[in-house]
Design a protein that fits this description.
Elements lengths: L5 H20 L4 E2 H10 L22 H4 L2 H17 L2 E5 L5 H12 L7 E4 L3 H14 L2 H4 L2 E4 L6 E8 L8 E6 L2 E10 L2 E8 L3 H10 L5 E5 L1 H13 E13 L1 H4 L10 E4 L2 E3 L10 E3 L2 E2 H10 L3 E7 H7 L2 H6 L6 H15 L8 E8 L18
Parallel strand pairs: 2-3, 2-5, 3-4, 5-10, 10-14
Antiparallel strand pairs: 1-7, 6-7, 6-9, 7-8, 10-16, 11-12, 11-13, 15-16
Length: 381
């Protein structure tokens, strides 16, 4: 692990002390979901709320929009389809550096399909400024002026709601199945710093749900009611249109497979992935894979129609990634070579193609969504 600079150590120590105070006030123990919330989102100190680079080569991990504008260009066909049907707007959740928004808007401008508004829901003041800078530098003024930042969901929305790598950053509960029953793994603070500590799971709804999974003893996993709650909120605010969420994860049958007995929790720091969230506090990303069955159920229970579920590779193929690539001559190596390299990472099963999934929902629109016309695996959820 790369050593921390003095400034990074100072920053991390401030957040450690803040979390430590919260643990003391809570009686010496907090759930991991509370710890993850503070580590990522404490204003001015949390990973997503502070100023270090997070995305791209200079940051801790690389997302598809950071890799190449090809991703957004292909996505824009699906976006344009929904906008044409609804005559609505776009709402992006957690827009990262703003590159996806910029590239989608530029692609829609080429199609003469710009919406009146491109809303960005962003809770981080720091990332909101990064997005403003990115979009202001990339977009003509007339297009930039259609972008509007929100801090809460709108009460009523028509159009497309889009989330790329949003669900994986929603705080999760850690659940430990033992021979004595279902326990929740949380965090305490001792002489050596933050420590794991299990307590009996007492939340009735969570206990009921986990009991139904019938997991074997000595099994550690994550459960994320907050992600399902987010889907419920999105369904409530959507009047007419579609929701598309892209992330890494599995259907429940695979997520809670007996062999996945250590869960999926992962941290990212300076392009290194490791499983310890109790170090580098405020300096590293903390994520867990998405249970797409839970996401699907939450959406359907709240009145959405499940439009499809497939791999990222299948979704991009359905949206015409090969047609987009065919518009550039292979002899034009300056343009074609980086595009081909990006396509390889986006589509390859060994890269992002199969690990990342796309789930779509619709409300009050009747036609199938372009991204799910082939290879839909909704039956696996």
């Amino acid at each position: 692990m790369p050593p921390l600079t003095p400034d990074a150590q100072k920053h991390s120590q401030q957040l450690i002390e803040f979390i430590q105070q919260n643990i003391q006030q809570a009686g010496g123990w907090i759930s991991f979901a509370e710890f993850m919330q503070m580590a990522l989102y404490t204003p001015g100190l949390g990973y997503y709320a502070a100023g270090s680079p997070k995305f791209g080569i200079e940051g801790d991990f690389v997302t598809a929009p950071e890799m190449s504008p090809l991703f957004a260009r292909v996505m824009s066909d699906q976006v344009a389809e929904v906008l044409n049907i609804t005559q609505g707007n776009i709402l992006e959740l957690g827009a990262g550096t703003g590159k996806l928004a910029a590239d989608i808007l530029l692609a829609l401008a080429e199609k003469s399909a710009l919406p009146e508004h491109y809303f960005i829901l962003e809770v981080s003041d720091h990332l909101r400024q990064v997005q403003r800078d990115t979009l202001a530098s990339r977009l003509p003024k007339a297009i930039f002026e259609c972008v509007e930042w929100l801090t809460t969901l709108p009460e009523h929305f028509i159009g497309l709601i889009l989330g790329n790598e949003v669900l994986d950053a929603v705080p999760v509960h850690l659940i430990h199945i033992t021979s004595q029953g279902i326990r929740e793994r949380g965090v305490s603070y001792g002489g050596s710093g933050f420590e794991w500590q299990d307590q009996p799971l007492t939340e009735k709804n969570l206990l009921k749900t986990l009991t139904r999974l019938n997991l074997s003893p000595d099994y550690l996993t994550e459960f994320c009611p907050a992600a399902q709650g987010l889907m419920t909120s999105l369904a409530d605010c959507l009047v007419r249109g579609a929701i598309i969420m892209i992330d890494y994860g599995f259907a429940a049958r695979e997520y809670y497979h007996p062999q996945r007995n250590l869960g999926t929790l992962m941290c990212h720091y300076q392009q290194l992935a490791h499983p310890d969230p109790l170090i580098n506090i405020g300096l590293q990303d903390i994520t867990a894979h998405v249970d797409f069955t839970g996401i699907a159920q939450a959406g359907v229970d709240q009145g959405l129609q499940l439009a499809g579920f497939c791999s990222q590779a299948q979704f991009l193929m359905n949206c015409g990634i090969l047609d987009v690539m065919a518009q550039v001559s292979p002899h034009d190596m300056a343009q074609y070579a980086p595009m081909a390299a990006a396509a390889q990472k986006l589509l390859s099963p060994a890269e992002m193609g199969d690990l990342f999934k796309v789930i779509g929902f619709t409300k009050n629109i009747d036609i199938p969504l372009l991204g799910f016309v082939a290879g839909d695996k909704s039956h696996t959820l």
